[in-house]
Amino acid sequence: MGSSLGGLYVGLMSGTSLDAVDAVVFDVSEDGHGRVLGGESLPLQTSLREELLALNTPGHDELARAALASQRLAELYATAVDNVLTSCAVSAADVRAIGAHGQTVRHRPELGYTIQLNAPALLAERCGIDVVSDFRSRDIAAGGQGAPLVPAFHAAQFQASHTRVVLNLGGIANITILDQDAHISGFDTGPANMLMDAWVLRTKGLSFDADGAWAASGQANEALLAHMLADSWFRRQPPKSTGRDDFNMQWLVEKLTDVFGTDPELWPAAQDIQATLLQLTARSVAAAIREYAAGVQEVLVCGGGSRNGALMAALAQHLQCHVAPTDNYGLPSQWVEAAAFAWLAWCHDNRVPAGLPDVTGARQPRVLGCKYPA
C-alpha cells in the first residue's frame, strides 16, 4: 500500500435496517488509515422504505419496480452527498470517488448471486463524481459469500498489538476478529436490529425501539429464545452471511407459532417478545465471540445497535469483557459503515484486495467493485 494514493472519498450506506441513508466524507491516507471529516443522515421516505422492503420478496412487476426504486434511492444518495459536502465545506472536484453499496434485496451466495438496488451511473451524473459500486459480486464469483465486506476496513482502522473484536450492529450483526498477529477473520452472527425494528413497527408503529427501552420493560421468554437459537443457521460454520432471506417477520411468526400456537392471544406480551429478540441478538453475538475469539478482552461496537443502551448492557453481561462504541477509538460508531464504503472505493482505485478469503471463503483475495466515471 506504500505507493498508493490518498485523498477524500465519500461513503454511502443504507443498511438492512432501512431507516436512513448515511453519508460521510472520509480522508484516507496513503497507508489506508482514515478519518471522518463529517457525516450526514437522511431518513428514507416511508413510501421508498416500504417499496424496498416489498422488493425483498417476489412480487408483481418487480423488475420495473426495482429499477424505479433504484432511481429514487440514487436521487436520495445524491442529496446526501450534496449535504455532506456542504457541511464539510468540500468541493465535488476534490473528491476522488463515491463508494455506494446500494440496497440489498436478495443475498443468495449459495446460488451464486446477490442483488443490491442502485443506479450508480445516475449517481455519477447527478454528483459529477466517479462512483464505485457492486462490491459483492466479484467475491461471489470467486466462490465467496460476498459478505461481510467490512473486516478489511476494520483492520485498517482498529488493528492493535492485542486481539480485538469489532462488532457491527446494523440490521444484521457481524464480527471482525483482529488477532494480535494481524490475522483477520469475520462473519455474520445473525440478526441485530432487523427483527427488533420489524416487531416494534408491527406492534407500536415505531421505526425502532429507542435505547431499547421497550425491550427493557419486558421479560425475555426463555422457551421462545431457545427455539430461535436452535435454528440451523446459527449452527453453520463460518464463512457465513445472512440477511432478510433468512431472518424476517415470517421467520419470527413461525417461531412464535411453533412454541405457542397460531392464536396470537396465546403468545407472550408484545414487550416480552421484544425483550426476547434483544436477547437473541445479544446471545447469538456472544456465543460467536466466545467460540471464535475466546479470551478477547475488548469489543468495539459500531452501527445503530451501539446506541441501544439495553442491548449494549446485555452484550457486556454475556461477554464479561470491555464493550464500548468505536467513538472511543477514533471513529464515530454512527459513521463506520458509510466510512467503510468510502474506504472500499479507495481500495478499488488503488487495486487493494479488500475481499478476504478468511472472511468470505473466496478462493483468493479480490479487488472489489466497479467504477462509473463522472
Q: Would you state the CATH class of the largest domain?
A: Alpha Beta
Order of helices and strands: EEEHHEEEHEHHEEEHHHHHHEHEHHE
Query: Would you tell me the overall average pLDDT?
Result: 95
**Total number of distinct structural domains:** 2
Structural class comes to alpha/beta
Q: Residue ranges: pLDDT <50 for 5 or more in a row?
A: none
Q: Using the coordinates shown, work out and report the CATH topology of the largest domain.
A: Nucleotidyltransferase, domain 5
Note the total helix count. Answer: 14
Shape: globular
The main pleated sheet reads as:
6 strands, mixed
Based on DSSP secondary structure assignment, what is the total number of beta strands? Answer: 13
Instruction: Calculate Rg over CA atoms.
Output: 20 Å
CATH architecture of the largest domain: 2-Layer Sandwich
Going by CATH, what is the homologous superfamily of the largest domain? ATPase, nucleotide binding domain
Strand order of the largest sheet: 3-2-1-4-7-13
Strand content: 15-25%
Terminal CA distance reads 25 Å
How much helix is in the residues? 25-40%
